[in-house]
Specification:
By secondary structure, this protein is α/β, with parallel strands linked by helices. Strands 1, 2, 3, 4, 5, 6, 7 and 8 form an eight-stranded mixed β-sheet that branches. β2 and β3 form a beta hairpin. The chain is globular, with a radius of gyration of 21 Å.
Length: about 325
């Protein structure tokens, strides 16, 4: 059902030096196409390709938290549907919360991951206008979190590990969501994740925004892609509250400690999945496979644990975060 999405490549603002070099390469290739063998620019193209690769490496070797935020939000970045298509065999979607309706912002279902039956929860933002509207830009409504609870209960009933792919700017803040008990639904989903008796792994593949993310990320192992972000509030939201000025989002991004590297040091996450130079969108299959290897390793570490041992490990993990940051 789920197909890997295709994107046109686009450059971020701080990648302009790379865009200029690669633009020059395209100009030279166009000249060759027009004049055929009359012009030989192979050596110049090779030089520019080397320069482009080195420039990209230099840029991504010293990204600021705000630049990582932009990379985490890159429209070409692999989405949840891409990870499901690349890692989960025989995926069967399960719809509805049995109370109100289906929420397409949260994909749920069961399938086989490298020979093992698993339950899947995945926040999907969409990759074009039509799919973004369908998936509500990855902002989950109450019925989505109630569906998540249903899937968690099913995973425990059938002794299946739970794998979550986290990618949301936050839970949907609309009036209808609040009227249907958004905060209560997030709390119950978080509680269900904490009490789950089967192993669980959550991977932040893009943005991990506030309670909207933690509701499906209360896992035994929480992993992040190298340039993903995970925060209690968006940089723009924090800047608006702290300084009443959303243009100070760059300052807020630094202060919030939202990067994978900061959060690993603080003990909030358990591991970082490397991305290729230039971000996940430049080598999608490599990143998806690396995420699969990290998930497999995390599940293997919990193989043979009893439900009580699984709950104890998860409880101690989150208690230790509170002690660390308290």
């Amino acid at each position: 059902m789920f197909q890997v999405t295709e994107y046109m490549h686009s450059y971020l603002e701080f990648e302009k030096p790379v865009a200029d070099i690669e633009g020059r390469i395209q100009e030279l290739l166009a000249l060759v196409e027009e004049d055929g063998e009359a012009i030989n620019v192979d050596s110049e193209i090779d030089r520019l390709k080397t320069k482009s690769a080195q420039t990209l490496k230099d840029l991504y070797g010293k990204l600021t938290p705000w630049q990582k935020t932009l990379v985490a939000r890159h429209p070409d970045r692999p989405h949840a549907v891409d990870y499901i298509a690349g890692l989960i065999e025989d995926f069967t979607p399960l719809a509805g919360d049995r109370k109100f309706s289906e929420d397409h912002a949260l994909i749920a279902g069961i399938g086989r991951f490298r020979g093992q039956s698993v339950a899947i929860l995945a926040q999907e933002k969409g990759h074009d206008t039509e799919s973004r509207l369908k998936h509500n830009f990855g902002m989950v409504r109450p019925e989505g979190y109630r569906k998540a609870v249903r899937i968690m209960e099913m995973a425990e009933r059938f002794d299946m590990p739970l794998v979550s792919f986290v990618d949301t700017s936050g839970a949907y803040p609309g009036r209808g969501a609040e009227e249907r008990g958004q905060s209560e639904a997030i709390a119950r989903s978080t509680d269900a994740g904490l009490g789950l008796g089967t192993p669980s792994v959550a991977v932040v593949i893009g943005e991990g925004g506030s309670g909207g993310a933690i509701a499906i990320a209360t896992a035994n192992k929480v992993l992040m892609l190298e340039h993903a972000i995970y925060s209690v509030i968006s940089p723009e939201g924090a800047a608006s509250i702290l300084w009443r000025d959303s243009t100070k989002a760059q300052d807020a991004a630094t202060a919030l400690k939202i990067t994978a590297q900061d959060l690993k040091q603080l003990g909030v996450i358990d591991g970082i999945i490397d991305e290729p130079v230039g971000g996940a969108h430049r080598a999608r299959e490599i990143v998806i496979d690396a995420a699969g290897t990290a998930i497999e390793s995390a599940l293997t570490q919990m193989s043979g644990f009893s439900p009580d041992e699984i709950r104890k490990q998860r409880r101690e993990k989150f208690i230790s975060i509170g002690r660390q940051l308290g």
